[in-house]
């Protein structure tokens, strides 16, 4: 098994140290994802830029959470689902939305369900969605801008989900209470 380093500010490559200092100041600790990504200063910088960009899109907190968690759950990311559960609660997202995303059950509104459906189509079809799928998304009240914002969210989550799969990043202590397994994995146990 290949082990990946959970870097600290002191052990990180020079190009990642400032970014880890910023993470520590923002969160009170260096998130495991950032600690692993620090091995590549470019990956860490790119991830943080995409995160900031996606967080500042036209999506509200509920919609950001739907995109993030839909991707995290689809990719079965053991780290990101608990982390984004905690983040969603801090963003005041309703528990019904959080639970539905984690459990892959229907969301409380048709509009949010349309966002999850479109995000899943984009993921599963690798961007090769049909005109009808785009129109259904638009008919739910979303915009052409939102189509591209979903792509931005996908790029961010691809970086984090794949990093966590490869590095087996341990879940940060504040999020361990939100530990998660994909529903089909739980059913198989």
Overall description:
The chain is an all-alpha fold and about 190 residues long. The chain has a single domain (about 15-185), classed as AhpD-like (Up-down Bundle). It is built from 10 helices and no strands. It is globular. The two termini are about 25 Å apart. The model has no long low-confidence stretch (mean pLDDT about 95).
Question: What are the key terms here?
Answer:
189 residues; mainly alpha; AhpD-like; 65% helix
Describe how the helices and strands are arranged:
Layout: H1 14-27, H2 32-37, H3 41-55, H4 61-74, H5 80-90, H6 95-103, H7 110-124, H8 131-139, H9 144-167, H10 183-188
As for the number of domains, it is 1
Structural class: mainly alpha
CATH superfamily caption: AhpD-like
CATH domain class name:
Mainly Alpha
Number of DSSP helical runs: 10
What is the CATH T-level topology?
A: AhpD-like
Query: Could you estimate the helical fraction of the residues in percent?
Result: 55-70%
Estimated share of beta-strand residues: under 5%
Named at the architecture level, the CATH assignment is Up-down Bundle
Morphology call: globular
Give the topology string: H per helix, E per strand: HHHHHHHHHH
Major beta-sheet overview: none
Q: What is the residue-averaged pLDDT?
A: 96
Question: Terminal Cα separation, in Å?
Answer: 24 Å
Provide the low-confidence segments as ranges.
none
Short description:
65% of the residues lie in helices and 0% in strands. The chain has 189 residues and is mostly helical.
């Amino acid at each position: 098994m290949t082990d990946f380093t959970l870097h600290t500010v002191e052990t990180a490559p020079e190009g990642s140290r400032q970014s880890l200092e910023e993470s520590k100041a923002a969160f009170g600790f260096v998130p495991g994802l950032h600690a692993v990504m620090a091995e590549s200063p470019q990956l860490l910088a790119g991830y943080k830029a995409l995160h900031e960009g996606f967080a500042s899109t036209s999506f509200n907190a509920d919609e950001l959470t739907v995109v993030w968690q839909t991707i995290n759950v689809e990719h079965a990311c053991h780290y990101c689902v608990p982390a984004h559960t905690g983040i969603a609660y801090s963003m005041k997202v309703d528990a019904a939305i959080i639970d539905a995303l984690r459990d892959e059950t229907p969301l409380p509104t048709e509009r949010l369900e349309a966002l999850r459906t479109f995000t899943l189509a984009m993921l599963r079809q690798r961007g090769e969605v049909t005109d009808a799928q785009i129109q259904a998304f638009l008919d739910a009240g979303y915009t052409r801008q939102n189509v591209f914002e979903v792509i931005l969210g996908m790029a961010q989550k691809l970086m984090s989900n794949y990093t966590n799969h490869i590095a087996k990043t341990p879940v940060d202590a504040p999020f361990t209470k939100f530990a998660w397994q994909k529903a089909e994995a739980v059913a198989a146990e």
